Amino acid sequence: MRLGTLFLGVGLASLFVGALGGEKAAQKEPQFPLSLFAKATEESYLGDDACSSCHEDVVAKFKLSAHAPHSNNPKLPVGKRGCEGCHGPGQFHVDENNPQVVSYTKMDAKQVAAACLRCHGDTMKLSHWNRTDHAQASVACTSCHQIHPKEADEGKPPADALVAFHAQPTPKKLLKGSETQVCGACHKKTVTQFKQNSHHPVPEGRMVCSDCHDVHPAKNARKDVDAVKGKCASCHADKAGPFVYEHDPVAGWTGDGCVECHKPHGSQNPKLLTSFSRGACAQCHTDKLSRHYPGRSCWSSGCHVAVHGSNTDPRFLRR
Ligand code: HEC
Ligand code: HEC
Ligand code: HEC
Ligand code: HEC
Ligand code: HEC
Ligand code: HEC
Ligand code: HEC
Ligand code: HEC
Ligand code: HEC
Predict the structure, then answer these.
(1) pLDDT tens-digit readout, 41-67
(2) DSSP 8-class letter at 132
(3) In 3-state terms, what secondary structure has residue 23?
(4) 303, part of any domain
(5) Is 188 found in the same domain as 134?
(6) Contacts of 194 (CB under 8 A, 6+ apart)
(7) 21, part of any domain
(8) Where does ligand 4 bind, in terms of residues with CB under 6 Å?
(9) What is the pLDDT of residues 203-212, one digit of tens each?
(10) Which of 211, 245, 264 finishes a domain?
């Protein structure tokens, strides 16, 4: 009887382990395009010279790519070197029965990300990328980045509606154009916001979108309060405190931090304010009746001049 239970126990345990093992194996099974690299051996890689015989132009032109010095590093393992590091083992491509190649124009955004992130794990992990709004909207690495240099007439970068009258900076980081060109091509509403009277100096070429936005989030894809405040504080430390007397929304204890009172891109009001009247303060201080306000606004009247916080006065009347 006892022996029976024991055997039954062992049987169940091994069944359980078996099921788990199977599940793990199924999860680990890499999907295309990573599957090609997974099943390759050293012999599957033919080297760039092999590509030259059929794609002479492409191989010659790739030398001009900013990516070429990285890809052509002879110290890289064979599976990460040259054309095949991105396009997969040449042997599979020239296989007459079942030709397979990693084509970035035919894959979906997820597959492109998986292929690029084989090597770019330092910039971000696939799981980090997948959480971004961009990944979720099927924006691909190649929507913003251009690996092979294009002919002057074929891939003109999108028109820049923002920094048009300034000297165009040369694209960095293999981007398809300057940052405002690339981002502005899809985010037209944001471009309009930067044209308002008060704006961050992006149109003047003194700032770029990625000064505030983590296009490649290392950990947290979503902009939470701290992330916004942290970003603003990195350039406006004097406004962020700490102060002896903190103002709750500036400190981030209430609401969304700085953007509770400021628009980040542009505003029709001075100082990027969401409102330039008592309304800016009355949205929270509802107990302060209109006769509490002597001037046009609570700060321009000369009263609460230290709206961000004060080291001397709990009511922010002095800095
Ligand atoms: C024997 C000739 C030959 C060799 C060698 C060769 N290719 Fe190709 N490749 C082709 C042909 C033909 C096509 C077009 C196939 C098509 O359009 O379906 C092609 C297409 C491609 C494509 C685009 C696939 C697509 O779906 O649009 C890529 C990328 C590519 N090759 C990369 C490479 C790389 C990298 C190498 C070197 C490892 C290489 N090729 C070696 C003949 C070759
Ligand atoms: C860092 C990754 C990377 C490397 C290295 C690379 N490519 Fe590409 N290749 C791409 C991407 C991405 C595209 C899609 C279009 C673009 O961005 O230019 C592409 C497009 C192509 C195409 C056009 C077919 C298509 O998919 O439309 C061919 C052919 C090609 N590559 C061949 C090569 C050859 C040959 C080499 C080596 C000299 C090479 N590539 C090196 C990433 C790479
Ligand atoms: C086989 C490995 C490998 C693959 C695959 C790869 N890269 Fe790279 N890439 C590198 C290395 C190595 C560097 C230089 C060091 C670094 O920045 O990590 C680099 C640098 C870059 C840079 C910075 C260039 C600069 O000017 O500083 C960009 C952008 C980039 N890669 C984009 C991509 C994109 C997009 C893809 C997918 C189409 C891709 N890479 C696929 C290895 C790779
Ligand atoms: C929405 C546009 C956009 C998309 C999509 C995008 N990137 Fe970038 N990438 C940028 C910008 C802008 C920069 C330069 C500023 C920065 O480093 O944040 C950059 C820089 C890089 C760099 C250089 C990083 C460094 O530290 O120097 C690498 C590598 C890179 N991107 C890889 C990728 C890969 C891989 C993907 C897809 C998983 C991708 N990018 C998707 C816009 C984009
Ligand atoms: C190919 C088009 C495309 C490009 C290029 C592009 N984006 Fe986006 N972006 C999108 C889409 C689609 C979304 C998803 C939400 C939406 O529809 O606005 C998005 C979302 C965002 C969001 C989050 C929006 C939210 O509601 O929270 C930010 C921030 C953003 N993009 C910034 C940038 C920056 C900075 C660049 C340039 C480095 C850029 N984008 C380039 C298409 C693009
Ligand atoms: C000074 C910092 C800063 C700069 C520079 C900046 N952004 Fe933003 N952006 C923000 C903040 C903060 C938010 C979140 C606003 C909120 O939550 O109310 C945001 C929101 C967004 C959104 C979401 C939609 C919206 O308007 O709320 C998009 C899209 C976007 N930004 C694109 C861009 C693009 C494209 C550029 C460059 C042309 C850019 N941003 C430059 C700080 C900035
Ligand atoms: C990369 C640095 C940087 C970051 C990050 C940054 N700013 Fe600025 N900010 C500037 C610069 C530069 C100016 C223009 C100052 C000038 O013209 O002398 C400015 C101006 C301002 C102004 C005054 C505008 C005017 O019309 O006088 C406000 C308000 C402001 N920023 C708020 C913010 C907020 C809120 C954030 C976070 C969402 C933020 N800033 C993030 C650099 C930055
Ligand atoms: C409770 C509303 C409120 C919040 C929250 C707030 N601000 Fe302000 N901010 C103001 C007002 C009002 C002014 C205009 C003050 C003036 O003109 O004297 C201002 C002005 C500014 C200026 C321009 C200063 C100058 O001298 O031109 C900057 C920069 C600024 N704020 C940054 C920030 C940053 C960074 C945060 C978040 C840490 C923040 N603000 C949060 C209300 C706020
Ligand atoms: C997002 C909400 C919010 C906004 C907008 C806001 N405040 Fe406040 N404020 C608070 C909170 C919360 C406190 C601390 C609790 C309290 O006393 O109401 C506070 C405290 C104060 C105090 C300290 C005195 C007191 O009552 O404890 C003053 C003064 C003040 N705010 C002035 C302003 C002015 C001036 C503006 C407009 C520039 C403003 N506030 C905008 C939320 C806000």
Answers:
(1) 999 999 999 999 999 999 999 998 989
(2) S
(3) helix
(4) yes
(5) yes
(6) 162, 200, 202, 203, 265, 266
(7) no
(8) 113, 116-117, 120, 123, 129, 134, 139, 141, 143-145, 173, 175, 179, 210, 215-216
(9) 988 999 999 9
(10) 211
